[in-house]
Design brief:
Length: 477
């Protein structure tokens, strides 16, 4: 291949340096330079590897390898079905940026793999079914009638959620007991407001736990009070030592440790709530994803009188929908309705009705079956990849793998988990240190979400972690 540039069929101007190693290396540097100089702008679609390979007279392997390398550097993004694009950046490079002078290295490297727990694979959003439901809603009387939406939510959705909870979560409720919210955070904020107005000063929270909900409760006037979590879930004895009259917990799948509250603890927790006339706020955030263990029913299904049940579609569909539900015990129903009525508006009625139609026609169940399978494969790939490294294996078993979209990787004692997370971020891998979710000191561990990690990248991600751990152990030795 004698040419040093290509600008023919693909219209792509890539200068291949004369020297600089193999064709793969020269092509990689050529594309890298084109991006740096702004000739390939953020968002630009690169030619399919077959077309570029034909033009350069090389194998597709060379082009694929170059694309993969540049994706690992965060310069390109590859998406199934929509090709390879130059990574979007906040601003178009200015003429100054294009000047040949060396640019300072960015302080925050681009994220190549976002393994933070929390989000599902939003690329798996069931767009065709959702769109069909949306179109149907726009032609119905429900939509026409909803110019003055009810604060409790669209009736159609309340019916659908009540049926879903009874079928899937063992929670038998009347339609009008379901209140529609903008998600779990909104639900916690409403409950915290109501409890604070009743003179409840604090909210016991699992430590570690999802800090966002602690902040939301604090903003509504409840001081979070940490309670330890062990292999059986929330430590109810430790809860008894506090003077809390309300507790926030995730009994089916503690976040982020992944434990399920044991049957003994479930009974003990309900007994505590009855004795103290306390409220249990149940965060049932990812009940739909169970792999190797029997589904754990909702705690509210055992005793509705003391539990506020919270659910949302943030883990199953898209956190950006801001759609969820709340089922209060009878004595909190009216205060919570009032809080909904006097607070900021709830989720879009169009989204509520669209979700209701989507679920009612079986689309939601089909979607859950499909993604559950994909997530299980991702989990398997990541667990296998992590266990293939002695340095990771030696820290003990990876935890919280039976359910959900994330797992917990114990790290060598003596290392600081936030430092490991920072080093990984330096390699473009976003994770969260367990200490980031903890109020009190915890053994070092990383929380890794696999919802968006394709099985083919799992080995690479595990390798990066193993390398970072080795470097850090050598550095601190
Ligand atoms: C522990 C936990 N609870 C609840 C949620 C869902 O919150 P929301 O419905 O406000 O998006 C998440 C999402 O990340 C979570 O991690």
């Amino acid at each position: 291949m004698g040419n040093d540039r290509t600008n023919r069929a693909t219209g792509l101007l890539i200068e291949l340096p004369e020297d600089g190693g193999s064709l793969y290396e020269r092509l990689t540097s050529g594309i890298r330079a084109a991006i740096a100089e702004g000739r390939l702008a953020p968002g630009h679609l690169l030619p399919p590897s077959r077309a570029l390979a034909a033009e350069l007279g090389c194998s597709r392997w060379v082009v694929n390898e170059a694309y993969t390398q540049l994706a690992a550097e965060g310069r390109l993004q590859t998406r199934q079905g929509s090709g390879t694009r130059v990574t979007a950046q906040p601003a178009t490079p200015s003429p100054v940026d294009r000047a040949p002078a060396p640019r300072p290295a960015p302080t925050v490297p681009p994220v190549v793999a976002d393994l933070r727990p929390g989000a599902p694979d939003v690329a798996a959003f069931p767009a065709p079914g959702w769109t069909r439901s949306l179109q149907h809603v726009l032609a119905t009387a429900d939509w026409e009638r909803s110019v003055f939406p009810s604060a409790a939510g669209a009736w159609r959705l309340r019916e659908v959620v009540a049926a879903y909870l009874s079928r899937v979560r063992g929670l038998s409720v009347e339609n009008d007991e379901v209140l529609i919210t903008c998600g779990t955070s909104h639900g916690v904020s409403l409950v915290a407001r109501v409890l604070a107005a009743r003179g409840v000063p604090n909210l016991a929270v699992e430590d570690p736990g999802w800090s966002r909900l602690h902040q939301v409760a604090a903003a509504a006037g409840l001081v979070p009070e940490p309670v330890a979590v062990d292999a059986e879930g929330l430590d109810v004895e430790a809860l008894r030592q506090t003077d809390a009259r309300a507790v926030l917990c995730a009994p089916a799948h503690q976040f982020p440790t992944g434990t399920a509250l044991s049957p003994t603890r479930r009974r003990a927790l309900l007994a505590w709530a009855t004795e103290r006339s306390a409220v249990i706020v149940e965060d049932d955030y990812d009940a739909e994803f169970r792999y190797d263990r029997r589904p754990v029913g909702a705690l509210a299904g055992l005793d509705r009188s003391r539990v506020v049940y919270l659910g949302s579609v943030s883990k199953t569909l898209h956190p950006g929908l801001r759609l969820g539900w709340l089922v209060p015990p009878p004595d909190l129903r009216q205060p919570l309705l009032d809080a909904l009525d006097t607070g900021a508006a709830g989720p879009s009625t169009l989204d509520q009705l669209t979700f209701a139609g989507f679920a009612d026609t079986g689309g939601y169940d089909r979607h859950l079956r499909r993604v559950r399978k994909a997530y299980r494969a991702r989990r398997d790939a990541l667990v296998t990849a992590l266990n293939s490294h002695a340095i990771i294996r030696d820290c003990g078993p990876v935890l919280g793998i039976a359910a959900g979209l994330h797992l917990l990787v114990p790290l060598p004692r003596g290392l600081r988990d936030h430092v490991i997370a920072e080093h990984l971020a330096g390699r473009g891998i976003a994770t969260v240190a367990l200490s980031g979710y903890a109020i009190r000191r915890q053994p070092p561990a990383l929380v890794i979400g696999y919802g968006r990690l394709s099985p083919s990248r799992a080995q690479w991600a595990a390798e990066q972690l193993a390398e970072v751990l080795l470097d850090e152990l050598n550095r601190t030795a």
